[in-house]
Amino acid sequence: MKNIHYTFALLLLTFCAIAQKPTPKSEQDYYEIKTLPIPKEIYLEVGGLATMPDGRIAVSTRRGEIWIIENPYQLTNHQVHYKRFASGMHEVLGLAYRDGAFYCSQRGELTKVTDTDRDGVADLYEPIYQFDISGNYHEYTYGPVFDKNGDMLVTLNLAWVGFGEGKFAKWRGWLVKIHPDGTLEPFAAGLRSPAGYSINQDGDIFYGENQGDWVGSGRVTHLAKGDFAGNPGGLKWAKEPNSPFRLTLEEIQDNGAPMYEAATKVKNLKLPAVWFPHAIMGISTSDVLQDTTRGKFSPFPGQYFVADQGQSKIMRMGLEKVNGVYQGFCINYREGFQSGILRERFGLDGSLFVGMTSRGWGSTGKDEFGLQRLLWNGQMPFEIQDIQAKSDGFEISFTQSVDVASVKKAASYALRSYIYKYQHQYGSPIIELMNLKISGVEVSADKRKVRLVIEGLRQYFIHEFKLEGIRNEAGEPLLHETAYYTLNQIPSGSKLAVQASHRLVETVAVKAVVVKPKKKSTVISDAEAMALLKKHTCLACHAKEAKVVGPSYSDIAKRNYTDKQILALVYKPNPQNWPEYATEMAPMSHVPAGDVLKIASWINGLRNKALLNHD
Question: What is the mean pLDDT of residues 242-250?
């Protein structure tokens, strides 16, 4: 009888321990997405957003309209009212409101739109500047963004003819400044698809770039006058008398070496402030917006929020200046939006309006378009607050005090560094991958900062931090455990004198796991396949049955590829196989061959299931 009571007591204690284990928090526990209803007859394919002083929100669309939305904050009721303010324009992919008028970018024109008789409908369309266009579908125009002097910044997409080309229309591939008198000043070049850009509190310009030719992965770059951001498609116009620099295509090396090597030979070549690793941190970088709400929007005032069209999510970026050069980190913030995000603008209450569209581009968000608001509930998540470079490693700040024991465990960390090729081919695989070793850890007195001494720091490289084992004092994991820091400059300063107290509990060397492909394909379950697909971010572009950014796995199965052929195509994609998809697949050679072959066998198993169901 005593044994029965003893056993029951053990079971009860075990149950209580399990019950008391903290449940991991999710993004929706802190950041709420509210959807604004859109009438069925309105195709609100958002190209631009503008916040009006009276609280209304204006939306420009890819269909050439401007809509004004009343009650967008839904304070008294959920009814949202839409009124068409302007129409008949050509693909309006940018919108600003200033001094009672709207300014917008049509494909071939920067236009001022005004309601002179105040009846709520535009009656005056004034061309401020007319841009050259050739008719190529890829010649998008974005903006304007006003600077402090009242000048308007506009970015001009390259044409696409199997590669980015700017020679068909003047100033394509450039950021230009349009003065109030209508004159154009070329400002910076080397842009491929500059859908999003903004000016920060210090007056500096940052723009987001999409992976493509000469762009190994998504990135955010600081642009000063005379900078060349890397894509040579628009260099024809560098010969113009008012160009801020001189550079030709022949001066650009095309040998697949990293971009930083080319920068040693090309004077004006500007390296990204932050790389966004492809398929992990988005696939189609769009808007870039600094949090200027002083704590209303997020727990990270002053940091930047970078949207992604393809993965329908928002990421966070922190910057610092080292030796006068911008650099910093990126980390996920909130996913799960209804369509592909193109625009972000703060509302008067500090919430973030998010405008979306996916037609022709694809996105993980299933809707063709949408308008949503992102709100922080004021609770503080356990997150990486900031990452700063040190002469011998990095200092990571956290939003809450860390559990020191977890910080001292080598198993809590996995660090590595890598970079991308700078080449005319579309995208790039990860190259020069190296695992990193931590030789010392120091925790601040308030337990909010952790300094890592790292062996093998590499200037210009992306440094990946996976902090899976870090816990706060309540035993909770980080809301987002992986961050990516672009180390353009290694700062000077004193190095940490590593003592015994700084050593980790066990060795921290991370050994690469080599998985040898099996001779025979073993079909894994749907659950196992989904876990692998999620792990390697494949679900950002593909789904089992539905078309997303790329074809569905069911459609791939119908091509009758062998497992080894799928492996070869994952490592070296052939866009000609799927010409109906606008976004080319990037090489994914960093995914272990064993995992790819498991996925391939599962894909081919879908074909067999379809045949059985058909029979």
Answer: 97
Residue 357: what are its φ and ψ, rounded to 5°?
-160, 150
Residue with tokens 């990095």, as numbered in its chain: 394
CB–CB of 376/361 below 8 Å? no
Q: Are 352 and 346 in contact (CB under 8 A)?
A: yes
Strands of 141-146's sheet in order across: 141-146, 152-156, 174-178, 184-189
- The residues with which 388 forms a beta bridge, in sequence order, are 395
Q: How high is the pLDDT of residue 344?
A: 98
* Two structure tokens written together for 134: 């050739």
**Residues 48, 107: contact at Cβ < 8 Å?**
no
d(CA 261, CA 264): 6
Q: Are strands 449-455 and 437-443 parallel, antiparallel or unpaired?
A: antiparallel
Residue 503 carries which side chain, given as an amino acid letter?
Answer: R
Residue 4 has phi, psi (to 5 degrees) of -65, -45
Instruction: Tell me the per-residue pLDDT of 536-580, one tens digit each, with 9 for 90 and over.
Output: 778 777 888 887 778 989 899 889 899 898 988 888 888 788 887
Helix H, strand E, coil C: the string for 342-369 is EEEEECCCCCEEEEEECCCCCCCCCCCE
Name, in order, each residue with C-beta under 8 angstroms of 23's C-beta and a sequence gap of 6 or more: none
Sheet holding 313-322, edge to edge: 285-290, 304-308, 313-322, 325-335, 482-486, 462-466, 414-420, 430-435
Q: pLDDT (tens digit, 9 = 90+) per residue, 288-346?
A: 999 999 999 999 999 999 999 999 999 999 999 999 999 999 999 999 999 999 999 99
Question: Count of CB atoms within 10 A of residue 537's CB?
Answer: 18
CA gap 470, 432 in Å, rounded: 27
Pairing of strands 414-420, 462-466: antiparallel
Residue 111 in tokens = 């236009």
Tell me, what's the pLDDT at 95?
98
Strand spans (E) along 190-267: 196-199, 205-209, 218-223
Q: Could you tell me how many residues make up the chain?
A: 615
- Give how far the C-alpha of residue 472 lies from the chain's centroid of Cα atoms, to the nearest Å: 27
pLDDT tens track for 422-473 = 999 999 999 999 999 999 999 999 999 999 999 999 999 999 999 999 999 9
**384-429: per-residue pLDDT in tens?**
999 999 999 999 999 999 999 999 999 999 999 999 999 999 999 9
Closest residue by Cα to residue 431 from 232, 218, 259: 259
The Cα–Cα gap between 21 and 17 comes to 6
